[in-house]
Design a protein that fits this description.
The chain is of the alpha+beta class. It is built from 13 helices and 15 strands. The structure holds flavin-adenine dinucleotide.
Length: 444
């Protein structure tokens, strides 16, 4: 049974799902990762990287087959309602699938996490017709999705984007450029944030569904990156792209709000699951290597300082999993989950950076060698504290929330500080040391 079962099954009662089903999906995820040899192939995918072919991105040789195998096994449809071709299970289980894939290949795991956020956005904001049109193909992986908000001059500051669409005779005419788009050029469906009513400030943004093949939509380039080298990260150009008005996602003028909701939901919890997956593999490698490697006549694992590192890694992993599964469960229950999403994203990604670094350290010189995957994990995980909202932005969100909702500090329980919302009586758990309260001007 996969270790995730321990974290997910206790929540099954609240989600109304039989624990057997959770275990079946987790086992299927593990089985598909093994059957596709994803862990062994990840190294080659990293070296080969994606390419532009006829202007569109192709994944490294064999990587598209992995997507197809996962799609055929129904894993992309975990939380898509049955009426739209999925299994109608909680999103929480999809995060488990994301973690399991990311343990084997961070690039593929990120692609899947982002694809999941596109599904989540359609479920949250798509109308019936859009759900009918797009969800069945997203659920089977016949079509892959991308979320496009970042631009060359604006990432954290979403309202600073320049991409615009003017409305003309039933079409939004889209112009602009997006950068850093995961699955960019490989995806078929793109949710694009743009300004449709620039004179209306924050109420002037909308999300449009852009499809591969629409005239004027092209890939500018694929980024050469530090890590995640198998994941296509693209600059996308929109030059007078005629997007039919039925491709407006959600409400005109609400695009910024919808993007922020999408970010805290699918994206941040998904990234936390992704980072946990990479960190889990790094921890397993550290355990194995420290047992095998001898120095001064003994296994290096026998040195107290190495043991201390391993114990900390295990504790961090336990907390990262606990926090993202809990955030996903709150999302599934329909509760407000913004704070929990930011807490799990901040903790899991920062912890994963540290865990992969310590694995590399435990590997000594071999940690620097391309023969071992320790160095790849360090590179791959680095995007975690940047993409989907940086660690600094997560700290801002958390501390603003505490101030705005006047949360009350209730003391410490184990590794967590407890903060209570006086109105809802909901208690938030924040890992000890995650936030420098004094710096952020918060008195306990
Ligand atoms: C591999 C990869 C994949 C990505 N995938 C996608 C994707 O699929 N779709 C998409 O739209 N984007 C994607 N991104 C972009 C990502 O979301 C942005 O890089 C991120 O939001 C940060 O924006 P930025 O790069 O413009 O940095 P900036 O916003 O310029 O930030 C620079 C620095 O300033 C800090 N900073 C900014 N504002 C504040 C503030 N108010 N207070 C304190 N510090 C602040 C930041 O924390 C950061 O340290 C991806 C990025 C990478 C690297």
């Amino acid at each position: 049974m996969d270790i995730l079962s321990k974290y997910m099954v206790p929540h099954t009662k609240e989600l109304g799902i039989d624990s057997e089903i959770i275990n079946q999906i987790l086992d299927l995820s593990v089985e598909m990762v093994e059957r596709t040899n994803l862990m062994e192939k990840a190294k080659d995918f990293d070296r080969e990287g994606p390419k532009l072919v006829d202007g569109w991105a192709r994944l490294p040789k064999g990587n598209e087959d992995v997507y197809k195998a996962f799609g055929d096994a129904g894993l992309f449809g975990i939380f898509v309602p049955e009426e739209h071709g999925g299994h109608g299970l909680p999103y929480t289980i999809f995060t488990g699938f994301t973690e399991i894939v990311s343990r084997a290949c961070a690039s593929t795991g990120l692609g899947i996490a982002v694809h999941g956020s596109v599904i989540d956005i359609f479920l949250s904001f798509g109308n019936d017709e859009q759900k009918r049109k797009y969800l069945p193909d997203l659920a089977t992986g016949k079509k892959i999705g991308s979320v496009c908000f970042s631009e060359p001059h604006a990432g954290s500051d979403l309202a600073g984007i320049k991409t615009q669409a003017r409305y003309e005779d039933g079409y939004f005419i889209l112009n602009g450029q997006k950068q850093w788009i995961t699955n960019g050029g490989f995806s078929d469906i793109y949710v694009v944030l743009c300004k449709t009513d620039p004179d209306k400030g924050k109420k002037g943004f909308s999300q449009l569904i852009v499809e591969k093949g629409m005239e004027g939509f092209s890939v500018g380039r694929l980024e050469k990156k530090y890590g995640l080298e198998a994941s296509p990260t693209a600059v996308l150009n929109f030059d007078e792209v005629r997007v039919p008005e039925e491709n407006l996602l959600g409400v005109r003028g609400e695009g910024l709000k919808q993007t922020i909701i999408g970010l805290s939901g699918g994206e941040r919890i998904g990234v936390a699951a992704w980072a946990t997956g990479i960190a889990w593999t790094a921890y397993q490698e550290a355990l194995e290597y420290s047992k095998e490697r001898k120095a001064f006549g003994k296994s290096i694992r026998e040195f107290p300082i190495i043991q201390r590192k391993l114990q900390k890694m295990e504790r961090q992993l336990d907390m990262a999993r606990y926090l993202y599964v809990k955030a996903a469960k709150i999302k599934d229950l329909g509760g407000p989950f913004t704070l929990e999403a930011s807490i799990c994203k901040l903790f899991a990604t920062e912890a994963a950076v540290e865990i992969t670094y310590q694995n590399q350290q435990i590997h000594g010189g071999n940690g620097i060698s391309r023969e071992y995957s320790a160095e790849r994990h360090v590179r791959d995980v680095r995007t975690g504290t940047i993409g989907g909202g940086t660690s600094e932005i997560q700290q801002l969100i958390i501390t603003r929330y505490i101030k705005d909702h006047q949360l009350k500090y209730k003391g410490v329980n184990g590794s967590y500080e407890l903060w209570e919302d006086p109105r809802s009586k909901h208690t938030f758990e924040i890992p000890l040391g995650l936030i420098d309260w004094e710096f952020w001007g918060i008195k306990k």
